[in-house]
Amino acid sequence: MNEQSPEFDWTQLRAFLATAEHGSLTAAARALGLTQPTLGRQVSALETSLGLALFERVGRGLELTAAGREILPHARAMAVAAQRVSLAAAGQAQTLEGKIRITASDLFCAHVLPPILARLRIAAPRLEIELVAANDIRDILRREADIAIRNLRPTEPDLIARKLREATAHFYAAQSYLDRRGRPATLADLARHDVIHFGDPARFIDHLRALGITLSPENLCLGSQNGLVAWAMAQQGLGIAAMADEVAAHTPEMERLLPEMPPITFPVWLVTHRELHGAARIRLVFDLLAEVLARPASGNNGDGNASG
User: Fold this and answer.
1) Which of 57, 95, 140, 294 is a Cys-bridge partner for 164, taking CB atoms 3.0 to 4.6 Å apart?
2) SS3 string of 211-233?
3) What is the value of pTM for the model shown?
4) Handedness of CA 265, 104, 253, 176 (dihedral sign)
5) Strands 241-244 and 159-173
């Protein structure tokens, strides 16, 4: 190793960390928004400055050498420190301009957030809003998003979370499906129908069982991890789908089933980082989202029409 301590280039260290976490230059470059040759040069430059080989090729991937494994926890600690500096700086901004990333489910981004964004455009026209439509939990600590709308309470101590309300969901189906297969009159009748799942059939069955609804894998013949795709299947008459009432309200052609059934409920949490909440643009967006999303959502009645 070089006798003199090297001066670390954060860009090179970030390239090393991404490669270590993703296991290949291709995946790491994609995560950082770089080309593979550019990222490869950054990793090579770090190895040169350290006088160490940090990776070895195994098959089509890369694995850390002993030196790489020794450096990795220190690189992660530096990444956390860099993120905190970025968050602290962003939290001091008091202008209503700049970019804000809001993450929520694909269905929520498509059906619920656009009208709120229209209000934001009027209140702060210089803001640049990016919706990160994702059904997984985006990491605010790593600046993958500035504000998140989640259905689980976050546990990270550096996050501010506000529970807005308990949202409701029911089962819905298209008229074409109901004309063909009939309407279920009870929860037990669902076992004689095609039900569309959203991602993991086994988890979906377990979740419904906890609500007193018994289905088998044979009922879940269609589904998708993409909520918009799964909902489109239901709209095309391919089966029954459980859907948040506020999303279903935007598709009044879908009929709500089992009107006497108690609603399925789930929490809606609004989350941001404690440091970011001090920025004027974050507070503005956070407070407007809280104001609008805290209101009870409209659903569809048993005739398929939106109800107040």
Assistant:
1) 294
2) CCCCCCHHHCCEECCCHHHHHHH
3) 0.64
4) negative
5) antiparallel
